[in-house]
Design a protein that fits this description.
- By secondary structure, this protein is mostly beta strands.
- The chain has one domain (about 10-115).
- About 0% of the residues lie in helices and about 55% in strands.
- The chain is built from no helices and eight strands.
- The chain has strands at about 10-15, 15-20, 25, 25-35, 40-50, 70-85, 85-95, 105-115.
- The strands form two sheets. The protein has a six-stranded antiparallel beta sheet, with no helix packed on it.
């Protein structure tokens, strides 16, 4: 049985980093709807990141993004709880370095045990 949505989470960060010559502006945004942890619950999410070269936020980026600085990207996915505190999550990511025209596409599937 799939349960109805119980949470809505939204975050957005805009950090101004002043370098020696250039003002670098990373932007990170995320929105999630739903929750996980109880069997039958689900969560859908969307994330956007824009990180300039040598931006401070690049040092704290997650492994879900292929590049860690000088890129922009989108990530969307859905998670479904299978067992108590265990869920599977699928995501699609498109990402491009700011100095290239080619986009990188990735599909990930994660099996997560919550603690």
């Amino acid at each position: 049985m799939i349960r109805y949505v119980t949470e809505f989470i939204g975050t957005f960060f805009l950090v101004l980093t002043v370098g020696l010559v250039v003002l670098l502006e990373p932007a990170l945004g995320a929105v999630a709807i739903g929750s996980v942890g109880t069997p039958g619950t689900w969560r859908a999410f969307y994330m956007f990141q824009y990180v300039e070269r040598d931006a401070v936020v690049g040092a704290y980026n997650t492994d879900d993004w292929w590049f860690h600085s000088r890129y922009r990207g989108h990530r969307a996915g859905v998670a479904v709880t299978l067992f108590p505190q265990v869920y599977v999550q699928g995501a699609f990511l498109v990402q491009r370095r700011l100095d290239l025209k080619t986009w990188l596409n990735r599909i990930t599937v994660d099996l997560v045990k919550m603690f």
